[in-house]
Amino acid sequence: xxxxxxxxxxxxxxxxxxxxxxxxxxxxxxxxxxxxxxxxxxxxxxxxxxxxxxxxxxxxxxxxxxxxxxxxxxxxxxxxxxxxxxxxxxxxxxxxxxxxxxxxxxxxxxxxxxxxxxxxxxxxxxxxxxxxxxxxxxxxxxxxxxxxxxxxxxxxxxxxxxxxxxxxxxxxxxxxxxxxxxxxxxxxxxxxxxxxxxxxxxxxxxxxxxxxxxxxxxxxxxxxxxxxxxxxxxxxxxxxxxxxxxxxxxxxxxxxxxxxxxxxxxxxxxxxxxxxxxxxxxxxxxxxxxxxxxxxxxxxxxxxxxxxxxxxxxxxxxxxxxxxxxxxxxxxxxxxxxxxxxxxxxxxxxxxxxxxxxxxxxxxxxxxxxxxxxxxxxxxxxxxxxxxxxxxxxxxxxxxxxxxxxxxxxxxxxxxxxxxxxxxxxxxxxxxxxxxxxxxxxxxxxxxxxxxxxxxxxxxxxxxxxxxxxxxxxxxxxxxxxxxxxxxxxxxxxxxxxxxxxxxxxxxxxxxxxxxxxxxxxxxxxxxxxxxxxxxxxxxxxxxxxxxxxxxxxxxxxxxxxxxxxxxxxxxxxxxxxxxxxxxxxxxxxxxxxxxxxxxxxxxxxxxxxxxxxxxxxxxxxxxxxxxxxxxxxxxxxxxxxxxxxxxxxxxxxxxxxxxxxxxxxxxxxxxxxxxxxxxxxxxxxxxxxxxxxxxxxxxxxxxxxxxxxxxxxxxxxxxxxxxxxxxxxxxxxxxxxxxxxxxxxxxxxxxxxxxxxxxxxxxxxxxxxxxxxxxxxxxxxxxxxxxxxxxxxxxxxxxxxxxxxxx
Length: 808
Description:
Elements: H1 24-29, H2 40-44, E1 49-50, H3 63-72, E2 93-94, E3 132-133, E4 140-141, H4 157-164, H5 170-173, H6 176-198, H7 203-215, E5 223-226, E6 229-232, H8 244-252, H9 260-279, H10 295-307, H11 309-312, H12 318-330, H13 337-350, H14 361-376, H15 386-402, H16 409-422, H17 437-461, H18 506-513, H19 515-525, H20 534-556, H21 563-574, H22 576-581, H23 585-588, H24 595-611, H25 629-640, H26 644-670, H27 678-697, H28 704-721, H29 725-751, H30 794-798
Antiparallel strand pairs: 1-2, 3-4, 5-6
Helix pairs in contact: 4-6, 9-29, 10-13, 13-14, 13-15, 14-15, 15-16, 15-17, 16-17, 17-19, 18-20, 19-20, 20-21, 21-25, 24-26, 26-27, 26-28, 27-28, 28-29
Domain Zn(2)-C6 fungal-type: 22-52
Pfam family, one: Fungal_trans
GO cellular component, one term: nucleus
């Protein structure tokens, strides 16, 4: 007979003095547990089950134990906890690692032997920051920093009961009461999680999650490569990734050399080469001071320069310049050569505003190369003077007004900055040798202009600004008129006027006050190592907006400021909003969290279109007409100029056109809606057609902008007409063929009738062509190389070697 089994008394059972905080697998293996859910040990061992033991004496749990458990729980897992919704114990989870996204970026803090789970969709958000649909050339948009996981979906109780009853769990660790307690706990957590998702008083928790999403880095293009050049984020070509459908159409005809469209474009390109070759001066014609116009024309050109560029960027001292200018016309032989070069460059810039067709373009290019020849002459140290710096600054402006290799001006700007630093302009005159107030103020003025040149060229090229606030201590110029500055060692420093008093320095000082904010934005967007956290983007945008608002309030308080100066200041400052927000537009089209970037981009585009007189006129026929000479000057700058004066208006028009296309696509999906901006947007697209046509008439040989504006309008037409996909490309092709034929006639008018027919045929590419072959989807018919016409081949003709890389 077997002995009777005696019941074990409660006192004989071993009691635990503290709750078991480690998971069951770690306790069984006797290894350290990080108490996450799932814990790191289970993740590394690929254990499919990570559970925690439920304590039977939950009612006796003291407050200190709950507080300690709340602190131990990692904030990276699960929703923020508050009030009754807080989870007292971790729920069991059947963990199965998800496949890592193809484009996910590894975190710098991730252990080498760990496999972090992929981000899980956050309920309540239409689209997470983890993945966003983007242009076909980019694939999926991925965050630089992986989003934190959202709460894991509740596991059905039945599956938990089955899991808990397996030999690896309940059979090894507890009785059936423990399993029932675990199932009850899971049901309770399911209810709490359901209440958390629908309860109205927990909206702050969802806001915290959205804020976390905004703190995560976004993956978007930080630049693109074109052969030997890298364009950073602020370069306007980076915005072309939004033109996916139009780019796809352009690529299709890249190799179809038998089509009428390809042959027409190739003929336009060769006509452009002929026009550029005729503008190129020969080495024998480079003679300083031998190509002077009449006194009447020279006076008009100098006056045009003084009322435009000199009113916004101070380079010369006007009284001193005018006195020397008069002496030149009285006795030309008594004026030194550097002043003749300086005077010619001023006239060359003024020629941009002399007439609408820029009839003096060839003469302006001739004067530019005479200035380059002067800088190349022997004894380079003798060029390191204030006049030499002024000549370099004016040559930089002339590159952009006369389209002389302006796409390489950032290289020359770097040389200009280093030359100025080598001459000590980065140090305030108070810390240098004693000098007259005239010399001290001219140094401050010239340094402020050089900083602006470095900043604007960096924005154009998509490169770093090459200078920071730590690199100089030069104070801003004083609010003085030129007449107050006299070259006299015994003269006292003149008393600066109040900021409310208008002077010749009012506009340059207002621009200079926004330099720190613009410098910070440029450094951020063009630094490939900078973060892409959206919250930081909003902060930089807010600081830039505040600085520009103060600038506009100051400028509007002075009625004496010309319309040219007002429009120029807005044009050169508000363009930075494109660099900040346009890369995020593809995300904003699919995720409302980023809608602010879409709105800022559209608002900036409308402002710049109005600024460039590309909005519909009051009569509704064509673009707005200039009201006075000052407005006309700015219009002619955008028509005759190049660089930013061409790319920024086109960038604005492209943004407006894309916004209108997206509105039409939304109407197709969701039904018609009332849009008050539709007619205004369409009027801008119609106005830009006339603007691009005027540019070709004034000597522009690049027809790419004209063709793309036509494609935008054609895209809207097919959306409005409901044309099927098979007929869309045919419509695009017909629209482009019409514009190419028009451009060919305009270019042939510029060339003249003495060009043989074989001179405009399909020829081999020029050795100096800079093929726009972008890997990111902006290859706009790369073999036709429209952008290469920016560089006129001057270096080759004059045999200057790489001198363009050293001088502005």
